[in-house]
């Protein structure tokens, strides 16, 4: 069976070349070295990245106007950032344990990650309450509106990640029902998405922090 190829190698191929035609005719129909899950996740991350980039562009254009008033950065935002960082580190540990077939450790790591995710969401809600009590309402200033939009969008993406987290932890919850290949694949996908959410948050937080 012919090995699947990376998308970068496929882009450099010359399908009109006679030698390439022979190779193409001999393949088994499996083109990319990506599972459906990985391919779907990449599409999701690309779409989300484009979505956030569009908001960042409008944010950059809007902040140059005179009515833009910078918001304060509550200490809780820093704490929430640390929570996301720790959850990403714990997920790396879960990935390593999964590769070593240590599924009890994987389950424990996933439980910690779920708790950290809930702590982050609660922390974000507390930040909102703190800012509202200080008079930073959505309609008060464009900077306020962007902050609430950014944090809402990121929070919704995290909630989506929690849905997949539930699917992942169910696969390791009962030891006798563990399917090793499926668990490893699911943990890997969930970890990739979690690292993506952390990266997005760092960009958004940095943007709000320095503007």
Give an overview of the whole structure.
The protein is mostly helical and 211 residues long. The chain has two domains: 1-33, no CATH class; 36-210, Cytochrome c oxidase, subunit III, four-helix bundle (Four Helix Bundle (Hemerythrin (Met), subunit A)). It is built from seven helices and no strands. The longest helix is centred in the C-terminal third of the chain and has 32 residues, at 142-173. The protein is flat. It starts with 6 loop residues before the first helix and ends with a helix. The relative contact order is 0.13.
Shape: flat
Report the CATH C-level class of the largest domain. Mainly Alpha
Largest sheet: none
Topology-level CATH name of the largest domain: Four Helix Bundle (Hemerythrin (Met), subunit A)
- The helical percent reads over 70%
SSE order: HHHHHHH
CATH architecture annotation name of the largest domain: Up-down Bundle
Poorly predicted sequence stretches spanning 5 or more consecutive residues: none
Give the rounded overall mean pLDDT: 84
Based on DSSP secondary structure assignment, what is the total number of beta strands?
Answer: 0
Category by helix and strand content: mainly alpha
How large a portion of the residues is in β-strands, by DSSP E? Answer: under 5%
Could you give me the name of the CATH homologous superfamily of the largest domain? Cytochrome c oxidase, subunit III, four-helix bundle
The number of domains: 2
Radius of gyration: 22 Å
How far do the termini sit from each other? 54 Å
By DSSP (H or I, 4+ residues per run), the number of helices equals 7
